[in-house]
Each structure stands twice: as structure tokens, then as C-alpha cells.
Amino acid sequence: KQEVTQIPAALSVPEGENLVLNCSFTDSAIYNLQWFRQDPGKGLTSLLLIQSSQREQTSGRLNASLDKSSGRSTLYIAASQPGDSATYLCAVLYNFNKFYFGSGTKLNVKP
Amino acid sequence: DGGITQSPKYLFRKEGQNVTLSCEQNLNHDAMYWYRQDPGQGLRLIYYSQIVNDFQKGDIAEGYSVSREKKESFPLTVTSAQKNPTAFYLCASSLTSGNQETQYFGPGTRLLVL
Q1: Which residues of chain A from 70 to 89 reach within 8 Å of chain B, CB to CB?
Q2: CB pairs under 8 A between A and B
Q3: A-proximal residues of B, 7-46, CB under 8 Å
Q4: Is some CB atom of chain B closer than 8 A to the CB atom of A101?
Q5: Rounded to whole angstroms, how far apart are CA atoms A58 and A65?
Q6: Tens digit of pLDDT for each residue in A97-111?
Q7: A30, A61, A98, B98: which is deepest, by most CB within 10 A?
Q8: Which residues of chain A make contact with B41, given a CB cutoff of 8 A?
Q9: pLDDT for residue B60 is more than 60
Q10: What is the SS3 assignment for A83?
């Protein structure tokens, strides 16, 4: 059974700090991995998508890496801002659009 | 504006009642999905549809039913057989069912049991 784990479950940092969110998955036969942001009571917004053949993707202050062999992905957020406060979810695609989601890391960036 | 709409935002269900959650998209996407999110947990796939008039069960389909009569619409019915329906329900769509497609999510419907 595919499992996706995110550590830590919650993180609180002062504004301006660089931070890393972790995602691990048990089965390395993935098609792609996505990082999403979810604000309280809202839907998900896609941040980055990494294909299985890629090692990393960047968008602005965000950088996501993928190491399939070790079953890990990290989301790096540079120079964090209070507006980054949200829950960050990673999702792994194995086949035919069956995404498996982690339970998320709730990030609080303090002004 | 292109996007995915879900209605209602909040829905209350009485015991033994079937309720239907609406999901509409104007993105011209072929594939649509329904997920359930419980507090502190990730999303779990209920049903998905890769094309009109076709849909497949996800990991937790018991107690739910769907239809896909139109490309832009994918309603989810929570039946009385679903004994623990209280959750946040999210609809999503993607251009195709290919592995390179990202999913776009609606704002969600919160279902509560009276």
C-alpha cells in the first residue's frame, strides 16, 4: 500500500527564515509528485509539479526536489513571509490519476 | 473567469438522507475527481472520471455515487449508506488523464450531519 508521509506536521518560523518541508513515499515507482498549498477552509492550489524523470523544479521563492530512489521530496521556501502561512500538501501519482496525499505540514510564519 | 465551482459551501444532512454536491468546471478539462478530506489528514480519492459517461471508483467509493453526463459537470451523491459523511469534499479537474497534468481544485463543500 502506498503511503505518503509529511514531516513535520506543524512548523512555526519567524519571517525571513528559509525553511524546508519534507515528504516521503514508500513506493518509488511514481509518475510525478506535486506540492500544493491549502489555506484554511479552501481548496488546493498547485505550487510545483515534478515529473519522475526530473530532479527539481523552481518557481519564485519555492524549490522542490525529488529523489525517487530514496522516496523523498523536499519543498524549500526562501525568505519566508507571513503570507506563506498555510498547509502544504504533497501528492504522489502512481497510475491513472490515483494521487496519494500526505497529511500536510501546517506552516505559520510570524511577522 | 475559468475555474471550478462547488456548491453549496456548507451542506447539512439528516440521518437517512441522500445529498448531492455540485461540481462544475469551465476549463474544458476531460478528467474530473472527487476527494474527501478529514481533519489533519490528506485527501482520499472517492471517484474519478476520465471522460464523459465514464467513471471509476477510487479508494473510498462505498456510500457514494457519481454521474458524468456532461463534460463540465461531475456531481457527487452522498447516500444514506455512508455512515460517517462529515468531511470536507473537494472536486478537481485536469486537462486529460495523462501523467503530466496538474489538478485544479474547487473551493470545497463542508458536509455536516444533523
Answers
A1: 89
A2: 65
A3: 31, 33, 35, 40-45
A4: yes
A5: 9
A6: 678 999 999 999 999
A7: A30
A8: 103
A9: yes
A10: helix
Q: Which three cell numbers stand for residue B51?
A: 471522460
Q: What is the pLDDT of residues B80-90, one digit of tens each?
A: 989 899 999 99
Angle, CA B64 vertex, CA B93 and CA B34 arms, to 5°:
15
SS (H, E, C) A1-27: CCCEEEECCEEEEECCCCEEEEEEECC
| Rounded Cα distance, B13 and B78, in Å | 9
Q: How many helices (H) and strands (E) does chain A have?
A: 0, 11
Residue B99 confidence (pLDDT) above 80: no
Are B5 and B90 in contact, with CB atoms under 8 Å apart?
Answer: no
In the block, which residue shows the cell 444532512?
Answer: B13
Per the CB < 8 A criterion, the answer to whether A9 and A63 are in contact is: no
> To which H or E segment does residue B80 belong?
none
The secondary structure of residue B102, as a DSSP letter, is P
In one-letter notation, the amino acid at residue B11 is L
DSSP H or E stretch at residue B12: strand B10-13
Q: What percent of the residues of chain A are helix, what percent strand, and what percent coil, each to the nearest 5?
A: 5, 60, 40
Phi/psi at A40 (5° precision): -50, 125
For the purposes of burial, counting CB atoms within 10 Å of the CB of B60, is it exposed (0-12), middle (13-18) or buried (19 or more)? middle
